Amino acid sequence: MVALSDYQPDPFEIYGRKLKIEYLGMASVYAIILHFFFGGLPSLSESVTATAGSFFLFLGLKKKTKDHLSGSLILFTSVAIACGPIVTYRWALQYLAFGLSVFAMEGYLEKRQSRIYLLPALFVLWALKDTSWLLGIIFAAMYLTHSWIERPGLRRRLLFLILLSFAAGLATSIIRCSTTESYRYFPFHDGLVNLDPASMVILILMIVLTLICLVMFSGEILLPHHLNAIIFCALSWLDGRLATFFAMVAAVLLSATLFKDSFHSDRLRPFFKHTEWYYFWIVFALALLVVIY
Length: 293
Hints:
Blueprint: H1 11-18, H2 21-37, H3 44-61, H4 68-89, H5 92-109, H6 119-127, H7 133-141, H8 154-179, H9 197-216, H10 223-236, H11 240-256, H12 269-292
Helix pairs in contact: 2-3, 2-4, 2-12, 3-4, 3-5, 4-9, 4-11, 5-6, 5-7, 5-11, 6-8, 7-8, 9-11, 10-11
């Protein structure tokens, strides 16, 4: 058995640390997502908006898994499900809004509660687009099931902010639908959307992994994660755009359970630690190819 104390960095890691390749590598991940997954959007600004949604999702994941390799794998899987509906139905702003919701609410669990003050403004901006902001309210409301015993007033504060966000979103929707005929009533305005076969296969895989986690780690899963996984898993079958939201919810659950201590056995960790540093170089090289060509 290889002890962690015997771990010897190779040249890829030594020079990678000097060049801060881990930062370049993760920046390259978003360059790849921007180009390959969201590059089909009509404008660069929409592609950047959708990519920003994946960025805030990753910020919601990074405290849950200790491994960039598994974190990136989960992120790419989530984005692969989302790219079809986002590109076809220009779902970039809604995707960013849900990513910001994940970022804010996971901060609530991670003792970064100041993030929840983003909610009212977030839902006003979201409600300017369509009525899918109501799904964000449902997602955020599930976090009220997590009680902070050491901070008894915190849940009351979150409840106030969610009610304020609901009122602000509702008022914005009423104003929008009274001033324009093009306001969208999700999902009825465009009808239901199906995923392409490849995305459906990835979605089924993520659903299976989610159900496995709900069974295997039932005693460890926080109630907000448990409830949101069930709710959005059920919704994902109704509409392809809802599958993009489920993919984010499932990414949080997988990072907090199956991949929480990924590759941390004495036998496997040295191998995957080396692999992680190779991975940073590889995605950096791929991003350079994207920029050049």
